[in-house]
Amino acid sequence: MLLEHASARAAELPFCALFIDLDRFKQVNDSGGHAAGDALLRDVAQVLAAQVRKSDTVARLGGDEFAVLLDHCPVAQAEVIAEKMRSAVVAYQLVWEGRVHGVGASIGLVPVSAALATATEVLRAADAACYAAKRRGRNCVAVHGLGAAG
Q: How many CA atoms lie within 13 A of 11 on its CB side?
């Protein structure tokens, strides 16, 4: 797994990880059906990938959750990228059977160095930061270790 490999090297090559949970996705499935939800997920994956560098990785974890690995990326730059991703998701609209569907994005950002040595620890920290974003009212970016979590 890419995250495991990156985590093992984090002491020498720090990186940032993002955990993204789509806000209001259940409403898309409930009102437009699962085909609309699937189309929105495919489109959002492309929207997210368009906001990162070629060296970065965007992956769907399952459901309406995505993870992003920002290789060799300082926290300040990761925050800018995360905010671009959040804005792009909010701007995206799916028109499905005459209805317009949209979602927001709660994003947890984790700077990864030697302190988080395993992929499990990175994902746990990113998930905690994402939940901090949701507690703040959703559709925002929360950085792990800056009052977000941990």
A: 5
Q: What is the dihedral of CA 8, 11, 13, 14, to 10 degrees?
A: 100
Which top CATH class is 2-143?
A: alpha beta
Cβ burial 8-41 (10 Å sphere, 16+ → b, else e): eebeeebbbbbbbbbbebeebbeebeeebbebbb
pLDDT score at 89: 98
Q: Which residues of the chain have pLDDT under 50?
A: 149-150
Return all residues near 98 (Cβ < 8 A) that are at least 6 apart.
none
The pLDDT tens digits of the residues spanning 45-72 come to 999 999 999 999 999 999 999 999 999 8
Residues classed as catalytic: 64
Q: How far is CA 18 from the centre of its chain?
A: 5
